[in-house]
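Posting this for the archive.
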Amino acid sequence: MVKVTMLARVTDGLPLAEGLDDSRDVPDAEHYKQQIKALFKNLSKGHNEASRMSIETGPYIFHYIIEGRVCYLTMCDRAYPKKLAFQYLEDLKNEFERVNGSQLETAARPYAFIKFDTFIQKTKKLYQDTRTQRNISKLNDELYEVHQIMTRNVQEVLGVGEKLDQVSQMSSRLTSESRVYADKARDLNRQALIRKWAPVAIVLGVVFLLFWVKTKIW
């Protein structure tokens, strides 16, 4: 069965819409939603390039598609047919693009398209029972194949993002430390120059002062 459905803008990970009553029967629903948000964050950083993917997490599996800078994601039981899950997402994509596509870039707050939940709930009901004639026909549709869609583990996917973040943070820290080191090196060089030339400057200053006093007296 379809358990959770969420949409997000890929460019910045901003949540756009969600099935509001999706997760009522999911234990630890908040845990899986946090994983989804972490996945959206990774996608916004370009950590996963596949436009379609399945990601295993506990007894469930995330399926997502990316089209038009929007990620459409659903979490289903592992036994739920992969082909139906992706066709469900395709239906959401087609309707969202038709109704809200022109407003995507202007969305500035999370869940700006929360009213899309109505369509999510209506469409989810059509896909819940895999034994209906409609869904059996979709499963037998040879024109829609999902065999080529990669399946990965959630820890593998999110772990890659975390490692890349750590590398990025380390790089930033090293850059910052190198700037501090360069500043300290310049200060030390400046102090060395001052120690080297200060006595000379003092002697020249005294000579100039004596010369000036002498000219005034004479």
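Helices lie at 29-44, 82-100, 117-128, 133-139, 154-217. Residues 161-171 have pLDDT under 50 and may be disordered.
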